[in-house]
Design brief:
The chain has about 350 residues and is an alpha/beta fold. The chain has 2 domains: about 75-195, 3-Layer(aba) Sandwich (Rossmann fold); about 220-345, Nitrogenase molybdenum iron protein domain (Rossmann fold, 3-Layer(aba) Sandwich), CATH 3.40.50. It has 12 helices and 12 strands. Strands 7, 8, 9, 10, 11 and 12 form a 6-stranded mixed β-sheet that branches. Strands 4-3-5-6 form a 4-stranded parallel β-sheet, with helices on both faces. The longest helix has 26 residues, at about 45-70.
Length: about 350
């Protein structure tokens, strides 16, 4: 047979697939195994390998960030006792044992989470009371099942706090004595309640107002101020009080040098000190102070003779909170009225 003719003959078709057609008989040829393609890793050193590497890196980073996010859900702060308070989630049921803390939580947008208050705290009047700041009712607090209790640093109320902690309740105590402590308190409450941005914004607003007052009173002679906490058994605001910082930032000078928060002060010492300005707080600690112009011997005071006497709201001046900047501005307007133009009007 011609070689050219042989070369033109077609080869038998290759076997494809792994089975026989239905009804067909198998011949003596071996069937090719069924083949399922699998993805192969890119060759090392090629463009595909680099893309694969970056994909794995991105997946790993995303997974790590999710893990860190879960860890960050637990918030830890230190209160003013140095105690660590740890919460796995923002509290939804808060008992406030101090009016300034109720005001602060409300200003942060967490007022709807407060389930109880103390007597005399009128910030939220529709929620129940659980005793006083000196003697909070532990049984009532426990019955409310709070996930956070906050207290304002009242020494006589500390035994109740320890009992609550013994029962497993998280308790945070805050006792700011100046604006630095107040700003820190607001920041920590914001962290605990998941309202950190609101806390930062509140602090910024207060700082701006304090800067405005500082600018106005700068360079002016600070008048000497006596702040009356209580009339009978005369009690004054000492250097360790929030009031002291309010007086200083308002452009005044506290005549009391006692480093404590409260300082007993005798009438004879008061007459010798001769304050230029006399401030009287009115509230639970000084409910019905007698008219200073009719008090025996008070007419000998320079502040009374010159009628430089100011009666203020106790909760505004002696209760650290979001209104403390208001107290600074009110006192500064009284001490330096000309710094605000005519009749104390803002220029």
């Amino acid at each position: 047979m011609n070689r050219k003719l042989l070369s033109r003959r077609k080869s038998p078709p290759p076997l494809v697939g792994g089975g026989w057609g239905e009804g067909e008989k198998a011949d003596n040829r071996t069937a090719a195994p069924k083949f399922t393609p699998t993805p192969a890793l890119p060759h090392q050193g090629g463009e595909g390998w680099r893309s694969y590497f970056w994909l794995l890196l991105i997946i790993s980073l995303v997974s790590l960030s999710l893990i860190c996010k879960d860890l960050d859900a637990t918030v830890q702060i230190q209160d003013d006792r140095g105690q660590t308070i740890s919460l796995a989630a923002p509290p939804q049921r808060i008992v406030s044992l101090y009016g300034g803390l109720t005001e602060t939580l409300t200003a942060l947008g967490a007022g709807d989470r407060i389930v109880a208050r103390i007597q005399g705290d009128d910030t939220l009047k529709k929620i129940p009371t659980v005793g006083t700041h000196l003697q909070p009712n532990v049984e009532m607090i426990l019955a409310l099942k709070p996930d956070l209790v906050v207290q304002g640093g009242v020494p006589k109320g500390m035994p109740a706090l320890k009992r609550l902690e013994t029962e497993g309740l998280p308790v945070a105590m805050f006792a700011p004595r100046d604006f630095a402590g107040l700003f820190s308190m607001i920041q920590r409450l914001g962290a605990l309640t998941g309202r950190a941005e609101a806390a930062a914004a509140l602090n910024r607003r207060m700082e701006e107002r304090l800067k405005d007052v500082a600018r106005r009173v700068a360079g002016r002679k600070p008048p000497r101020v006596f702040f009356e906490v209580r009339y009978h058994n005369l009690l004054a605001a000492g250097r360790g009080s929030m009031v002291n910082d309010i007086i200083t930032r308002a452009g005044g000078a506290n005549i009391i040098e006692n480093p404590q928060k409260l300082a007993p002060f005798g009438l004879e010492a008061l007459i010798q000190a001769q304050p230029e300005v006399y401030v009287i707080q009115q509230g639970p600690m000084n409910r019905s102070p007698e008219d200073i112009y009719t008090r025996p011997y008070f007419q000998e005071l320079r502040a009374v003779k010159e009628r430089r006497v100011l009666v203020v709201e106790e909760s505004l001046f002696s209760r650290p909170g979001p209104r403390s900047a208001d107290a600074v501005e009110q006192l500064a307007r009284f001490l330096h009225p000309d710094a605000w133009g005519k009749a104390g009007v803002r220029d």
